[in-house]
Amino acid sequence: MRRVIVLGSTGSIGVNALDVVSRFSDDFKVVALSVNSNVTLLEKQIKKFRPESVCVVNESAAEKVKSKVRKYKGEEGLCRMVRDTKADILVMGIVGSSALLPLLNAIPRVKRIALANKEALVMAGDIIMEMAERNGTEILPVDSEHSAIFQCLAPGDRNEKCIKNIYLTGSGGPLLKVPRSKFRDITPTQAVNHPKWKMGRKISVDSATMMNKGLEVIEAHHLFGLGVDKISVVIHPETIVHSMVEFIDGSTLAQMGTCDMRTPIQYALTYPLRKASSVKGIAFSEVKTLNFYKPDLKKFPCLEIAYGAAGSGRTYPCVLNASNEIAVAEFLKGKIKFTGIPKVIEKVLGAHKGVGSPGLEDILESDEWARRKTKEILSVINY
Ligand code: MN
After folding, report:
1. Domain finish residue from 122, 141, 160
2. Which residues neighbour ligand 1 (ion) by CB within 5 Å?
3. Residue 23, Cα to own-chain centre: how many angstroms?
4. What span, in angstroms and rounded, lies between the C-alpha atoms of 321 and 139?
5. CA–centroid distance, residue 70 to ligand 1 (Å)
6. Who's near 176: CB < 8 A, 6+ residues apart?
7. Ligand 1 centre from 116 Cα, in Å?
8. Res 310: pLDDT
9. pLDDT tens digit string along 194-244?
10. CA–CA dist 253, 11 (Å, integer)
11. Taking a C-beta distance cutoff of 8 angstroms, is the pair 374, 321 a contact?
12. What parts of the chain have a pLDDT lower than 50?
């Protein structure tokens, strides 16, 4: 019986993770849950899974928890709960940079992290991977593309020398067929309306700008120890191939499946075993064709900006991420145009003086600086 912590339990990853766990009640026991503020759903999850501890990050929402369970609150409380709870696996379903500190607290204390969050790796991938290596903690990807790559790599293939290239596939998001001339007037409702995946609002906007693929390139660089020159993005509107690996011998492996996050979540929990699931396979005779083509970088400048930040290394990816988080939040509030997102990020990156081999302090400082700088620019220029 493995003890599991689920952070972000009321978000789309968390809900799917609990659904998977509930099907394997002989193998997994939920010992702790965390939410941002959705106490109503948390109470239902407490009744069903009987965790030992819960944390509500939003402090005023935390007061509303009535169930008898050990309670934590706030960002500080979340890290404390992770340190206090004996567990084997932590499912990281928190979106954005707020996953970083709980993740760093978890790595020395659990055997495995099922990692759905990409922003923490973009900010501090070197620190995270080094800490995991030192502690013998497995970091298994839940992000569908990275799970696909992981599934394509036999243990002996997890070596930069065997891999010629990896192809991260992307559906192209909700704006694939919308002409660039209409981009200025894209509304938040249009941007979050993803054709293939049902996800949270932040990642849905990232998919619309294709910054999501850019962040995933950096995520793959850290997870698989590959230079970004070996990581390509390919548009695949059918979203059946979740990513591919081309090896040096000319062989290419792809992982395919329907768009259901329970597949990568379950694999990260049960690996190296495969277990039965209710997720349906692909009806190939109904699919008929699979298309692949190059992304349009003029239409989706965020992808190129992300490659640039990845190439610059140092604290640039961290600044990219922080500036993007602020820009997306401002867009969702209706404060800036859709086309303002890449413009402000590019300006912030241009103003940044990168710190080499950054420690955690440097990362946190650059993150704060980038948030401040983004807001400052947005208060002066009307994007
Ligand atoms: Mn993904």
Report:
1. 141
2. 143-145
3. 24
4. 21
5. 34
6. 195, 235, 237
7. 9
8. 97
9. 888 888 899 999 999 999 999 999 999 999 999 999 999 999 999 999 999
10. 31
11. no
12. none
**Domain CATH number, residue 333:** 1.10.1740.10
Per-residue pLDDT reduced to its tens digit, 143-187: 999 999 999 998 888 888 999 999 999 999 999 999 999 999 999
Is 168 within 8 Å of 231 (Cβ atoms)? yes
Q: How far is the CA of 47 from the centre of ligand 1 (A)?
A: 31
Task: Rounding to the nearest 10 degrees, give the CA dihedral for residues 375, 377, 378, 383.
Answer: -150
Three-state DSSP class for residue 6:
strand
**Predicted local distance difference test score (pLDDT) of residue 77:** 98
pLDDT of residue 158: 85
CA 141 to ligand 1 centroid distance, Å = 10
Residues 240 and 376 in one domain: no
Q: Is residue 264 situated within a structural domain?
A: no
Residue 191 and residue 230 in one domain: yes
Distance CA 3, CA 242 (A): 29
List 53's β-bridge partners, or say none: 32, 70
Provide the whole-model pTM: 0.96
